[in-house]
Amino acid sequence: MDAGAAGSVIGQWFSKVASGFSRGAPLEAGWPVLALIIAAAAVLTVPRPVWRWFGLFVTFVHELGHAFAALTTGQVVKGIQLRFDHSGQMHSMGRSRFAAAWTGFWGYPVPAVTGAVLVWAAFNGWAGFALSAGALIMLAALLFIRNAQGLLIAFGCATVSVLLVWFAAPPVVSWVTLAVGIALLAGAVRDWLNVLSVHTSRRRSLQSSDAFILYQRTGVPSVIWLAAFAAVITGAAAAALWWARPA
Fold first, then answer.
1. How far is Cα 23 from Cα 25, in angstroms, rounded to an integer?
2. Which of 47, 113, 121, 166 could form an S-S bond across to 126 if both were Cys, CB 3.0 to 4.6 Å?
3. Per the domain annotation, does 49 fall within a domain?
């Protein structure tokens, strides 16, 4: 493919991205369909072999949450590392104690909050906006990845987003947005249970827990941070359920 053809393809893709920012038809789904999607989300998050792969996407969203939280406090994001064992790390530059705590908190709750927002978008005609914005965020995030495993994970997620923008028809976009939103909510619960197990039965991995790191930074006990994570995740799930209820 020559430069002219490549430029044409890129231009067409950005045109599709731009078209996604307009509002479309709200999704309508009854409880039987929602139950099927919830069951599919369980399949992605409960069996270990499947979670091994879907959990990489949840981890990516988790670390992006840290990055966005850092930006909201004026910190400079230096890079993100992702690993195949579902661990990750976001490096930022800033000295404020509050900023460090704020940034450290917005990891585990972010997949749930993102999932709830996607559910809202699907049922309010903004699925295209969510997909276009998500694709741009995924592509931009590639600039901040600082390790080979992370690059593979981020590139895979970005590729799926790019292909959905290119090929998915508006009705499909709405269903995909809803399904990804519910799956992220389920993934947030699975991730929270994982970090809880670090504090109860796998304490040798304690140094990797955001709750423990926040305790070290603030002196507030890890159990408080775990409860705060759970509260946000529960609130996001409740909001998603409310928005998804059939009219």
1. 7
2. 121
3. yes
Q: Split the chain (247 residues) into runs of 10 and give each run's mean pLDDT.
A: 67 82 89 94 95 97 97 94 95 86 96 98 95 95 97 96 90 95 98 95 84 94 97 98 86
Q: Is 76 helix (H, G, I), strand (E, B) or coil?
A: strand
In a domain, 15, yes or no: no
Q: How many Cα neighbours within 13 Å face the side chain of 10?
A: 8
Closest CA to 172 of 60, 25, 32: 25
pTM over 0.85: yes
Structure tokens at 49: 């072999």
Q: Which three-class secondary structure state does DSSP give residue 80?
A: strand
Query: Which stretches within the chain are classed as H helix?
Result: 3-19, 31-45, 48-72, 97-105, 109-123, 127-141, 148-167, 170-200, 210-218, 222-244
